[in-house]
Every structure is written in C-alpha cells, then in structure tokens.
Amino acid sequence: MTRRVVLATRNAHKVGELRAVLEPLLDGVEVLGVDAFDDVPEVAETGVTFAENALLKARAVANATGVMAVADDSGIAVDVLGGAPGIFSARWAGRHGDDAANLDLLLAQLADVGDNHRGGAFVCAAALAVPGGGEFVELGELRGTLRRERAGDGGFGYDPIFEPSGAHRTLAEHTAEEKNAISHRGAAFRALAPRLAAELA
Amino acid sequence: MTRRVVLATRNAHKVGELRAVLEPLLDGVEVLGVDAFDDVPEVAETGVTFAENALLKARAVANATGVMAVADDSGIAVDVLGGAPGIFSARWAGRHGDDAANLDLLLAQLADVGDNHRGGAFVCAAALAVPGGGEFVELGELRGTLRRERAGDGGFGYDPIFEPSGAHRTLAEHTAEEKNAISHRGAAFRALAPRLAAELA
Fold first, then answer.
1. Is residue A85 reached through a cis peptide bond, with omega within 30 degrees of 0 on the bond before it?
2. A:20-49 residues touching chain B, CB 8 A cutoff
3. A contacts of B81 (beta carbons < 8 Å)
4. Integer Cα distance of A118 and B110 in angstroms
5. Tally of domains within chain A
6. Cα angle: B172, vertex B114, A184; to 5 degrees
7. A167-199 residue pLDDT tens
8. Where Mg(2+) is bound, by residue (chains A, B) (predicted)?
9. Closest to B134 (Cα-Cα) out of B196, B188, B43
10. Domain that holds residue A66
C-alpha cells in the first residue's frame, strides 16, 4: 500500500499551510490534494463544533477516495461574540469563502468595542479518517486580539486583523514559516502527526 | 415635580412597545420620547452586555434631560453562535438598524445548521436612571427557535424568523398584545415597573 494522505480541502491557502506543516513530519509520504481525485462529493458542514466538521470532511473524503484523509476546520472565535464567528468564519458575511467581506463585516460588528474587549483566538480542529479504520481529532488554538484595521499581506482570512498575543504585528505580517510555528493550524496538525505516522507505518 | 419618564430610544418600534407595556403600569405618568428634547447626545454603546448598554443609554438621557430615563438594550442570542448576535443584533450586517440585512445575514450564517441546533432567545435589559439618583436594570428573556424563512408582518427586527417555544408561529405572527405579554421586552419592563413606580411616587 502506497504511503499516501489526501488533504480534504479545496482551499488552496489551507493546502499550502497543511503541506508545509505535514511534509517535514511525514518523511516520504505523498500528500495529495482532494483535486487529485474525481467525484469527491462536497460535504455539508452540518456539525456545530470545529471537531465535528473536521471529522465530517475527513470521513467523507476517506470514504470517497479509499485513501487516508486529513481535514481541517478552523476559524476565529471572538470573546465578546461568545466565540462567534467560530465554525461560521468562512461564511460570516453569508457567502462561503469571501474573505474580504467576512473581515469587513467582523470589523463593522466590533466597531464600538473597546480595546480591552477585543480578545479572541484562532481555533483549528485537525481530523484524520482511515478508510475502514479509526477517526482522530486534535485541537489547536492561537490567542490574540482583534485590530481595528488591516495590516499585512500574508496569510488569508482574518489574518490581517489578528495580532497574536505578544506579537505586536498581525498574523498577516508574519512569514509563512513564522505563522506555521505558532498557528492554531500548525499546533493542531503537529498534535495529529504522531497518530498519522502510526497509521501510515 | 411632574411625573414624567423619558424613553431613551429613537427606535419608533421600541417606543411603541415600551409605551404599550409601561403606560398601563404607570397610571398618570407622562411617557415621553427622547425626541421631545433638544440636544440629547447620541450614546456610543460601548458596553459588552445588554445591561451595560441599557444603563449607558438611560444614564446619558437622564443626565441630558434632567428627567428620569428608561432604556432598553435587546437582541437575539443564538445558541450555536455562542449567544451572538447578542448586543450586536441591530448592527449585525454592519450598518446600524438595517433589519432586513441583519435578518438575511443571520439566515445565511445558519443555512447549514440542522433543526435540532436552531435554539435561541430574545434577551432584553431594561434600565432606569434617576437624575442625581439611582440606577436599576432588569433582564427578560424569551426562548424559541430560529426558522429558515420569514413568516408574518408584525413586530420588527428578527421577529419574522423567531418562533417562541410552544408557539408554532413566529413572533411576527403575534399581535402586538400577544407579543408584549410574552416578550423579553415586556418581561424586563414589567420587572422594572415597580422600581419605576417607587421612584415616581
């Protein structure tokens, strides 16, 4: 059996981040995008937690491809919003994947919120589904505060308005390597990597 | 001293509901809108709870007018959103008071959320500020579920998609009297009324 893993996402930004995190940890493993397969169905993200949605996606892709699948579900949890946007981060403005609209809406919602109430976190659930086998999920988190204006061109999503605790610059002002070292997604997938390695062995 | 109370809101819907709730409880008291006064400043709603914002508004209007002021801060708290939109309900789509856009956005955000996860509540904080005197706040809540489509022409805000528990129709399909009898706003102001009556006595 070939040592292959498929990434259960069509988001090019996430594919890039996941490859960067996973490949050094999984020597010699072929990391495929879901676009390498035909007829993988779109999964309705009907869960109400990051973990549920990540597992839904990993399971669907593992079942459709017969290849071990890892999936990510992640988002930004704003304290004063009770953890929202949360699992709805990618569709916050109503249309899936419109990063600019999502970010603008969140800024507008928080316009009157004072500096001492702008805390939040990026949260990621990393899931692994093994065809005919087990399912696993790990969580990662990055605490920080929400800026009032964008800064930086790196990353994607809400990165330009998120300042990690102690960083004094936004996540979009971090290099890809710096971001992966501290990010919610990096943490979740590093936590999942030993399980993935064991399943591939 | 005249027995007068000023309602610290410019929202005509809320003025109507508050008058209907308060006037029968406060026989002979003159209930004024804030528009009856010149030069009442707009208040930035910088609080992070309904109670804080209601008190901010009541206090500002009492200070500006010298008349006892009551204020409302209310909104819809959706369980799967961790209580959001909450205090941000009136500006959910980014622009204050655009009921149709706010409602459309919430429906879009919840499009993939299953029927068993669509619970929520309308919440209201009713505040009283007495010029040179005390400040008081009471909370009211109405539990229910979020529909997938509008129904009904009554009420305002999110009423057309909110079905109170056990009601089998939306709040917008209730008469004004039916709504006041069960609503978060009715409950909060009925709880506040004895205090208001004592202060007016």
1. yes
2. 44-46, 48
3. 81-84, 86, 88
4. 24
5. 1
6. 115
7. 999 999 999 999 999 999 999 999 999 999 899
8. 73
9. B196
10. 3-200
